[in-house]
Amino acid sequence: MTARTPRHSGVIPPVVTPLTEDGEIDRPSLERVVGHLLDGGVSGLFALGSSGETAYLTPARQDEVIEIVTAVSAGQVPVLVGAIETTTDRAIERGRAAVGLGADAVVVTAPFYTRTHDTEIDRHFRDVAAALDRPVLAYDVPVCVHSKLTPELLLPLAADGVLAGVKDSSGDDGSFRRLVIGSRDLPEFSVLTGHELVVDAMMLGGADGSVPGLGNVDPHGYVRLHEAAVRGDWAAARAEQDRLVRLFDIVRAARPGTASATAAGLGAFKTALMLRGIIATNAVSPPMRRLDAAETAEVAACLDRAGLSRV
Prior knowledge:
This protein is of the alpha/beta class and 311 residues long. The chain is built from twelve helices and eight strands. It has helices at residues 27-39, 59-73, 88-100, 118-131, 142-145, 151-159, 173-182, 199-205, 219-230, 234-247, 261-275, 293-306, and strands spanning 10-11, 45-47, 79-82, 105-108, 136-140, 165-168, 190-193, 209-210.
């Protein structure tokens, strides 16, 4: 079996996008988020993913996010940027913009809104990769794009050098394991889990790293988890993962029936970062709503139980 030297590994959080009260990008807060993540020891940054509210941001605001993240990172770690668009030409346009603003790699989903066949998804990734002078990673998130990226689709693209890796947020752990097995002879291909509650298990199965939304709140914890897994200390990895699972209860703070799962998760992450003194407000993009005072108190209690400081 070929020794693995994946291009991207470790902890690569999908960076949240702090907003001002009037919906603009909160530059000082975003700068602090990036600094917080770098201080936590992350090995990369994923700008404009789902946790970055990319689907809600105008192209101008997306560009501003890329400029800030790449400027603050200043080459310390790779910056992966989402070019998450409905069709191939749109993804290429956003990918080129990201590359022009300093992206080290571009993350692309399958096409969506239009009905799409696997042969078209294959062509989509090949066309996007051919148009961009940067590595392209696939983002498998069927809950949003309604297409599952199977190992049968991804592995030939990896073998042909089209894809440099995949961020798997499908929740299909069996498929993920088959992808890990199939990539063992593709040494540079990065297999990253977006399933933040089972990173220890995915690492034991052979994942190269994680892209955890909760890593915005506690990057140090996810880095400790990753390092324990790399050195084979599975008891320490499990203990850290258990603590992070309890911390993830922040997403339950939103009152049932009053917010989508997306709003509950993003609202919780931002509220936790606000309570930790890293961002100024927990404002989210419309039509989502921010967490209220009672819900914020629930998030604060979860932070306290997890041993995380707050202001």
